[in-house]
């Protein structure tokens, strides 16, 4: 077989007459007269001779090192003329002194080319039509991309290549067979054409650019089935030679194709163009090799399984290596070898998202700061495995047992994926693909029949349905605490580990688990290492006025919090009284209402809470009770006990039975689980936090007095002139100030609850029933069956109210509904009082609360907090504030 390099036609020609596999009867291409080697007059020389002549006079200079930047663009990047143009733009925007650009064939073309060969050798003459399609595709692309002389010369080359291919394929058709090198020759045209098109596109901008047929340069030798090794020395000589002839600043080179030392066209097999880029990067000692693709970089886990997966900014060569073994879509391990030896970084970048910085694979990751979590780079899983466990006392101290086991495994051709043996030597277990395990087990039973019969081996056991979770990271095995973190995460997720292997290579810890647990294990482990410690999984109970407003506030603010404070809030559940909506990773808050309507399931608080506690993706969980429900509040104790934080504007727990309250607070103080309830008093106003601040710094509370009801404040602030009482109550309800049942406000119960909350916070041990309350609910309406009925009947009492008001007015006074915590006398009280018009309590407007703290330090003048104390936005804001307080207790920056 003879192979020749062409001149400007730059096409390799086969002399099929020498290929015995084709019967030596066909000749192609000679009539075209393009068999001149470059700048040579030798006609039809045997390839080996051609090389020796050219090598001898090589004395050229190929600049090497930092000035070179190597780029590789895969088929998707070269998919359309527009994309080829974008590739040209990317190359031109690189300011490196010299650029070497490796390209794949346009997307789908390699398959089309293999298909041509396949058709021809199966004697399917539709290969002619298929070849025409290949031609059309490239012609159309070129016409779109190029014009003038460039277009003409590309098309003439394309024509001539296609006619050679036609002849070649017809030969294959006749022989009914294609050798590997024939097939490689045909297939390699995809790269030849894409490289030429790109180089013309770059040249169009005026930049000096040549294209390189890498078969002239890259020499490889077969090193195994479907695998080749580069011959660096020979390739470097040829590259020197090539460069001495065409020293352009930009070189576009064909990926994937190469030649043997005998100049037979071949390919880099499955390692493909990435391998080309790495080899060439190494030949020129490039400053960097950039692999352009359609993803933002290398993920920390398969993003289809772990929605929290992140793009890694750096990876060491070895980590990339490990990860590609586990199927991460990184680089083929062999691809890394050429650049690794020269410490050339490889950067994986997304051509369709230039703003993403990508992942740099290099020797020493820059951000390796020694943190535990930085030791772990990624997680991967392999499914459909079986564990084989060979067990018996006869194994200990008997050399050769493992060798015997694994030679059996080898003989049946099974692939051992992981091995683990405890040092007691009583068992060896290893994982193989499930489909291979039957053969392995049968062969082991045969091989160890005697040992089993004699009891030296007790069993050869197969455990089906296993998966591997592999954790990859540099220094992992040598850093204390990493495996503890991993196994703790798995334990918390209630996942049983069947076997463990950790090589001393330090790059990988592998655990075998039940396949059904695998994704859960992956998520739990990933979140432990990758999620911000202030990621909060949130469950909202009661998406009514306050809960709904809170959800909307979260929707608007979540991104800012994540960006600025590293606080990641994920609402993973919303439950109302009839339906609930659950999500494992976070509900889309832009459409929570719609989702709750359409995709919800029947509400079930126990299941809702289970959903929260079973979630192992998120390190912290909080339930936010936005109901006014006593029974919901009765669960706080259990939730806190489960480690779920609780936040609420619901007053029921803190104003309920004293013993339960004390039990709850004792638990809260003893644990690191938090319970916040600022919005229970004064809505978003800082009442609880002010009181706590006073107490915790050693101040002594003497008296807390104020207007604690937004509703009643509003009513008496607006009950003026000709307005009726019932009308103003309706307005307060409409404005969202009232409790779900406004009688809770008018009866004084709501104020009494707030008084109790503050009293207990101040250390008083009072029950709600200890507080004398003046109710404003007319006795006759106390028994109304619904809030609506109450509101309907309220106008009949307007006259009574008008009378009370005018009496006060006549005395130059106003009516105000106040609550008092008398800490000195350990009492509380709620009543309707009259205040002079110039009293601060008479100056309020809207739903204002005013709370005056008289303390040892604030004795002459009380500390006063005043402002709107009811309403959707301020209350939800107060609850939100508690969520951030929680995040900051968990370590969020302040
Ligand atoms: N409105 C305010 O200005 C204000 C101010 C401070 C505190 N609060 C408190 O906020 C809470 C909510 O008030 P709101 O005005 O939003 O009331 P709301 O009636 O509008 O909302 C309560 C929601 O909880 C739901 N719910 C009731 N029981 C439930 C259960 N067992 N499970 C699940 N969902 C249940 C209801 O269906 C409703 O959607 C109350 O505790 C209230 O005291 C309100
Ligand atoms: N209904 C309550 C809401 C705030 O707790 C009020 O009017 O004050
Ligand atoms: Na408050």
List keywords for this structure.
alpha/beta, 21% strand, binds L-homoserine, metal ion binding, VC0802-like, 8-stranded mixed beta sheet, disordered N terminus, 894 residues, binds nicotinamide-adenine-dinucleotide, Carbamate kinase, binds sodium ion
Please characterize this protein's 3D structure.
There is one protein chain. This protein is 40% helix and 21% strand. Helix 3 (109-121) packs parallel to helix 5 and helix 9 (272-283) packs parallel to helix 11 (333-340). The protein folds into 4 domains: 2-293, Acetylglutamate kinase-like (Carbamate kinase, 3-Layer(aba) Sandwich), CATH 3.40.1160.10; 377-521, VC0802-like (2-Layer Sandwich); 535-681 and 881-889, Rossmann fold (3-Layer(aba) Sandwich), CATH 3.40.50; 688-870, Dihydrodipicolinate Reductase, domain 2, CATH 3.30.360. The strands form 7 sheets. Strands 5-8-4-3-11-13-14-12 form an 8-stranded mixed β-sheet, sandwiched between helices. With 894 residues, it is α/β, with parallel strands linked by helices. The structure holds nicotinamide-adenine-dinucleotide (NAD), L-homoserine and sodium ion (NA). The site of nicotinamide-adenine-dinucleotide has 29 residues, from helix 18. In the C-terminal section; belongs to the homoserine dehydrogenase family. GO terms for molecular function: aspartate kinase activity; ATP binding; homoserine dehydrogenase activity; metal ion binding; NADP binding. It is found in: Plastid, Chloroplast. Bifunctional aspartate kinase and homoserine dehydrogenase that catalyzes the first and the third steps toward the synthesis of lysine, methionine and threonine from aspartate.
């Amino acid at each position: 077989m003879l192979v020749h390099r062409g001149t400007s036609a730059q096409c390799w020609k086969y002399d099929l007459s020498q290929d015995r596999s084709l019967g030596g009867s066909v000749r192609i291409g000679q009539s075209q007269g393009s068999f001149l080697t470059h700048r040579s007059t030798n006609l039809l020389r045997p390839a080996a001779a051609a090389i020796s002549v050219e090598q001898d006079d090589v004395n050229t200079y190929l600049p090497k090192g930092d000035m070179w930047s190597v780029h590789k663009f895969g088929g998707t990047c070269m998919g359309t003329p527009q994309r080829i143009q974008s590739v040209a733009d990317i190359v031109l925007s690189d300011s490196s002194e010299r650029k070497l650009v490796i390209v794949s064939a346009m997307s789908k073309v390699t398959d089309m080319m293999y298909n041509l060969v396949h058709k021809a050798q199966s004697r399917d003459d539709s290969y002619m039509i298929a070849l025409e399609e290949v031609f059309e595709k490239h012609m159309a692309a070129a016409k779109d991309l190029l014009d003038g002389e460039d277009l003409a010369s590309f098309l003439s080359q394309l024509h001539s290549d296609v006619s050679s291919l036609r002849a070649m394929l017809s030969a294959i058709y006749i022989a009914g067979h294609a050798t590997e090198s024939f097939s490689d020759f045909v297939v390699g045209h995809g790269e030849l054409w894409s490289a030429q098109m790109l180089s013309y596109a770059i040249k169009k901008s005026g930049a000096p650019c040549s294209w390189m047929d890498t078969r002239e340069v890259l020499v490889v030798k077969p090193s195994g089935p479907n695998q080749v090794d580069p011959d660096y020395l020979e390739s470097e000589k040829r590259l020197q030679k090539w460069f001495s002839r065409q020293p352009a600043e930009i070189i576009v080179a064909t990926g994937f194709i190469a030649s043997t030392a005998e100049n037979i066209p071949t390919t880099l097999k499955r390692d493909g163009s990435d391998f080309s880029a790495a080899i060439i990067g190494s030949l020129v000692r490039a400053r960097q090799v950039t692999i352009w693709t359609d993803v933002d970089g290398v993920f920390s886990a398969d993003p289809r399984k772990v929605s929290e997966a992140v793009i890694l900014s750096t990876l060491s060569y070895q980590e990339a290596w490990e990860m590609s073994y586990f199927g991460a879509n990184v680089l083929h391990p062999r691809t890394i070898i050429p650049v690794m030896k020269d410490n050339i970084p490889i950067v994986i970048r997304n051509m369709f998202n230039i703003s993403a910085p990508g992942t740099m694979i290099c020797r020493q990751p820059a951000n390796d700061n020694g943190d535990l979590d930085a030791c772990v780079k990624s997680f991967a899983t392999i499914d459909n495995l079986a564990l084989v466990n060979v067990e018996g006392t006869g194994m200990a101290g008997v050399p050769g047992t493992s060798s015997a086991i694994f030679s059996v495994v080898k003989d049946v051709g099974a692939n051992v994926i992981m091995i683990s043996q405890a040092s007691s030597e009583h068992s060896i277990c290893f994982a193989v693909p499930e489909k291979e395990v039957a053969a392995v087990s049968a062969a082991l039973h045969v091989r160890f029949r005697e040992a089993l019969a004699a009891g030296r081996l007790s069993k050869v056991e197969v455990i089906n349905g296993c998966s591997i979770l592999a954790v990859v990271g540099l220094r992992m095995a040598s850093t204390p605490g990493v495996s503890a973190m991993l196994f703790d995460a798995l334990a918390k997720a209630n996942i049983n580990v069947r076997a463990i292997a950790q090589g001393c290579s330090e790059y990988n810890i592998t655990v075998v688990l039940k396949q059904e647990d695998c994704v859960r294990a992956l998520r739990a482990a990933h979140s432990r290492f990758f999620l911000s410690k202030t990621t909060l999984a949130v469950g909202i109970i009661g998406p009514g006025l306050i809960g709904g407003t809170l959800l909307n506030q979260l929707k608007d603010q979540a991104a800012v919090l994540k960006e600025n404070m590293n606080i990641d809030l994920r609402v993973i559940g919303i439950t109302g009284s009839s339906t609930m909506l659950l999500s494992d990773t976070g509900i889309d808050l832009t459409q929570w209402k719609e989702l709750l309507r359409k995709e919800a399931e029947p509400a079930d608080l126990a299941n809702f809470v289970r959903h929260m506690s079973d979630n192992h993706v998120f390190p912290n969980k909080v339930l936010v009770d936005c109901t006014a429900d006593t029974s919901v509040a009765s669960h706080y104790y259990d939730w806190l006990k489960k480690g779920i934080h609780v936040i609420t504007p619901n007053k029921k727990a803190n104003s309920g039975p004293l013993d339960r309250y004390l039990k709850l607070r004792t638990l809260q103080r003893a644990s690191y689980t938090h319970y916040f309830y600022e919005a229970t008093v004064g809505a978003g106003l800082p009442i609880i936090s002010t009181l706590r601040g006073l107490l915790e710094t050693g101040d002594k509370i003497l008296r807390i007095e104020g207007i604690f009801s937004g509703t009643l404040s509003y009513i008496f602030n607006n009950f003026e002139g000709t307005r009726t009482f019932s009308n103003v109550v309706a307005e307060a309800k409409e404005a969202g100030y009232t409790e779900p049942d406004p009688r809770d406000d008018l009866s004084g119960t709501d104020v009494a609850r707030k008084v109790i909350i503050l009293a207990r916070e101040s250390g008083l041990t009072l029950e709600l029933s200890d507080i004398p309350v003046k109710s404003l609910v007319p006795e006759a309406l106390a028994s109304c069956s619904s809030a609506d009925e109450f509101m309907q009947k309220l106008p009949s009492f307007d006259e009574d109210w008008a009378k009370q008001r005018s009496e006060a007015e006549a005395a130059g006074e106003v009516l105000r509904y106040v609550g008092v915590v008398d800490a000195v006398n350990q009492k509380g009280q709620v009543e309707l009082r009259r205040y002079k018009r110039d009293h601060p309590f008479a100056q309020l407007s809207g739903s204002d609360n005013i709370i005056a703290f008289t303390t040892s330090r604030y004795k002459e003048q009380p500390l006063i907090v005043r402002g709107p104390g009811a309403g959707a936005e301020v209350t939800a804001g107060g609850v939100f504030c508690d969520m951030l307080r929680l995040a900051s207790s968990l370590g969020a920056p302040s």
